[in-house]
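My current task is to audit a protein record that another person submitted. I have pasted the whole thing underneath without changing anything:
***
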Amino acid sequence: MAFAGLLFPILGYFFIALWGLLGLLKVAVTILTHPFTALKKTTREIPPACLLDPALGSHEYVTANGLKFHCVCAGDTSKPLMLLLHGFPEFWFSWRHQLKAFSKDYHVVAVDMRGYGDSDKPDGVASYTLDKLGKDIADLIPALGYSACVLVGHDWGGAVAWRVADTNPELIDKLVIMNCPHLSIMGQELTNGWGQLLKSWYIFMFQVPWLPEFTIGLHDYRNFNAIFRGRKAGVKNRDQFPAEVVEAYKYSFSRPGGLTGPINYIRAIYKTRSFLFPRTRKTIDIPTLLLWVSSLSISVLVFVASSVEGPSVKTTMWRVTQRYPELVDRHIVLNCPHGRFEI
């Protein structure tokens, strides 16, 4: 706790300053070595056709927690609700395959979370605290006409799903989390040593004002090519991400404010220290499926419905299985890169 209370903030400011200087240096070198292409921007006024595909569902706007949310809905409204929460850097389109696959049995809703896509983008880092993000979803479920749902969250959407499970468990029939540790465990790992702290370098880099947005936008948002088609990102089959799909992400994030809101999620969680001292229930009594992926495999872990004490997800699934003998099933799926659950 002493590390969390004293050394972590000091190290945090050091890393923020370090990444700020390195980022400025990288930007300067990039512009000097590629003066004609580095600052190039394409005006994207018309969405790619894949975003308008009627087979994915209908586009609707729902008001919740004082904001307007863009949702893509598929399946009969008489069926149970499955609500899909995307991660970073993603938006509703990341769930395009799930919208089709699960609409036979559920009313599936993929939402652009606050700050993303066509949903409202409130100003300021304080508008993106985990409490407010959780309240969005807690209000969105009844706004969609349901008393509870199957809640599915990936990455930062997983963090929000954990928060809803903590504050409003009555709204969740089943919980599915993809690649997101429970926040209490994330806090422990960040403050217990150097390993996870160094792996979470991006948290500090994104604290620098405007620089992350500017860097990601260089070369007409070429970073999205690397994220979705790059070998270093662990992508094994580039055919899963054709040019039109990558262009859909560039379209969404190149719009005014398209990057600032999403990056403010990370800025807010650092500024509020909510990952260090999260307010969480001792147990999660919701049937929970946890999917964890490495560059080589996905571990699928099904928790029993009763008394799962703060699901402990550290850096490898092996350590989780050691800590929780309650796991009732596990499968390994090979060759899935981190974060690419849309495959």
Remarks:
- Residues 2-33 form the longest helix (32 residues).
- The first strand starts at residue 58 and ends at 64.
- The mean pLDDT is 83.
- The CA atoms of residues 98 and 342 lie 8 Å apart.
